[in-house]
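Weekly sync notes, structure subgroup
Attendees: PM, AL, DS (notes)

Item 1: joint prediction request from the bench team. They want all two components modeled as one assembly rather than separately. Inputs as received:
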Amino acid sequence: MGTAQLTAVPEPKYWHLRTVLLRAIDSEFSTGQVIPNERELAARFGVARATLRQALDQLEMEGRLVRRRGIGTLVAAPRVGVPVSRREEGWPGGSREQVWQTVDCVIAPATEQLAKALGVPAGETVYTVRRVRVAQGQTVATESLHVPDSALARLPAIRLSGAAAEGEEPGREEQGRTVLRRLERLTVDGESRSVELGVAEADEAQLLQRPPGTPVLVVTTQYASGGRLAALAVATYRADTCRLTFGETGLVEVTPVAASARTAS
Amino acid sequence: MGTAQLTAVPEPKYWHLRTVLLRAIDSEFSTGQVIPNERELAARFGVARATLRQALDQLEMEGRLVRRRGIGTLVAAPRVGVPVSRREEGWPGGSREQVWQTVDCVIAPATEQLAKALGVPAGETVYTVRRVRVAQGQTVATESLHVPDSALARLPAIRLSGAAAEGEEPGREEQGRTVLRRLERLTVDGESRSVELGVAEADEAQLLQRPPGTPVLVVTTQYASGGRLAALAVATYRADTCRLTFGETGLVEVTPVAASARTAS
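Output from the run, pasted for the record:
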């Protein structure tokens, strides 16, 4: 297939401007620097304010620019590389506890949809531990770790510590920790994963401290143990600030190639 | 950290409507079905046309609805699970050729940025093979596979076939195939990968037959051989129709949990 056979897609005006602006940002400005205001930029590039605003919106959506009230428009920091794998994150309850902070635990019968994803009968009790992941002082992800009762039942019970041990009703955060500590005893054979684009639902958005509808990378992970599904994690990573990394080679971290350099020919 | 301590983020009206619409779509309609027109929907949900349109735009952006001129708004097919790993795709030139179709090959000195990503001196000759990936009859991804001359030089040369063997100037597609055939002889020790949200640049958009700015998942893969970087692939997958899968457990394919069911508590 030659490129000549392909249908040309017309490039909208704001898109051309966005690409020109991106090159200017990459070559003239550094992270955190305030770029000229809209009036100056419109004059410099000889475009209408509306077109300029559309291009700036696009670059903000791409995580390249950040608007700060009272300051102006800044060049955003590069995305944070966030390792996503059991080897690097550790299994829930283990070293993973350092990257993930437990928020709470919900114990409820599985909806039809969740039951199907977990391979258990609808209505089976499922422990859902909600956690947030913090990187460089910023909440970058939320996670719902679903563990069916039948998987947990195959693990030895553990003594509750703290408040719960003293006879008080355990808090939802403490319940989450207990589920994680039981999971620690699980031998994980492997994990399968899927990554897709999504948007933060209301409660995920709240945990991420972003408006609902914020683009996120949805990472769904199946953890297998003894040939069966032991747990299912659904994590949402902020798409504007995160780059997910999956390492194996032991080489230096994957260096992203800027879009402007990606397809130069 | 209790949820009570978190700042509540207000939910915009269109966002609430989008969530209500999504539930209605999931329960009342199936893939390919035409949903009621804007006037009927606005009446049913008691909202202004502008709010409705904003919610429909959002669902189209999320790949849940598709607008077809002269037909109306349809429920989109579920995203296609696309396996992303050497084991499943094969190494370039091998079985991978079945999933990836070679478009052309560009031979050019490495820009500063590309040289840095490849770990070679700026200006070194780089072979960039461009390919497209087709799944279920649709172009779902583009790829630029960058191979520095120094990596290729460590591999034995191969005889050119077809037109080139007969003394004619090889075409850009044929050059691409030759690079891939030489890479076949490479022993790959491992691969590291990063996934992030991006937008299709003009020429990527053309290959995907979508408008520039279409959201894509950018997958950057380092292939290591003998402790060195042998090739760097930058692929862009359509974010509206693809779900990337990374398998290891041998269990059934990861079942995505619909956003509406993801966080039910």
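Discussion: The beta strands of chain A are 65-68, 72-75, 80-83, 100-109, 125-135, 138-148, 190-199, 215-225, 228-238, 242-246.
Action: AL to compare against the crosslinking data before next sync.
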